[in-house]
Amino acid sequence: MVAPFLARRIWQRETFPVELSHCANCDFEFYNPRLELTEEMKLYHDYRESEYQKSRQETEPWYSEAFNKGLADEKRWTGRTGALGPVVKQALTGRKVASVLDFGGDRGELVDKLFPDAERFVYDISGVEPVAGVTALRSEEECKQRGFDVIVTSNLLEHVGFPLELMARINAIAAPNTLVLHDVPLESSLSAPMVARRVVQFGVLGVTRPKVAKSLMHGGWLRVMHEHVNYFSLKALNEMMRRAGWNVLSSGIYRIGAAPLGQPMLWNLSERAAV
Ligand SMILES: [Zn+2]
Known about the structure:
The chain is of the alpha/beta class. The protein has two domains: 4-71 and 188-223, no CATH class; 74-187 and 230-272, Rossmann fold (3-Layer(aba) Sandwich), CATH 3.40.50.150. The chain is 38% helix and 20% strand. The protein has eleven helices and ten strands. The protein has a seven-stranded mixed beta sheet, sandwiched between helices. Strands 1-2-8 form a three-stranded antiparallel beta sheet, with no helix packed on it. Helix 1 crosses helix 2 (37-44) and helix 1 (4-11) crosses helix 3 (50-59). The N and C termini lie far apart (42 Å). The chain binds zinc ion (ZN).
């Protein structure tokens, strides 16, 4: 089932069933039908601003104002960049990194922390204001005017309906020597942390929003489609880059927070394949 919040925000309707497909070769999972760009715009416009938070809390009582604020919390960022920083540093050893674009990077917090010595840019459809020290580019045309040494996407690929189309858009922005760095959660619909979260949330809904809980009871509540419409494996991420016309330089798994509760993450650094 589609999360009631998504159904309302994107389609102005109550929840409905979707397919969840799984690739037996690479373990990639995706919800089908896919989100079109116009639907992504509706979902992510003014992302995590007041109206987003309020409407989300209507069907997800745990998504309070304080919780929403906590997502932008400095401590949370320290955890993220503390884990990713050394990975990126090692992967980019010996590479020139004078300018970086955070594609889909919200306020640009990540590149601001990871690349303090580079010129830092962010492009995001949410339209939110960037943090100090990061310049917002307002269109992909504007992005194309500059040649970046590195284009970063962080926690983006799991949100987009057509990752290969997204890579075509990044191709159009990249200069011949631009590197692309992806950072994406390692998830699957039936991994233990995912199931645990869904069970707790459904339990809360049953008590606080019985109508919403009932609307999900057609068998789909455990694998509800939320903002993550793709679940990547390392193999799937690397294969996607190859198909998009890139050479994978290095890739791997790292973890935000300690095992077993920490979130495992995937990263991939690629250069454009010679034509
Ligand atoms: Zn596959």
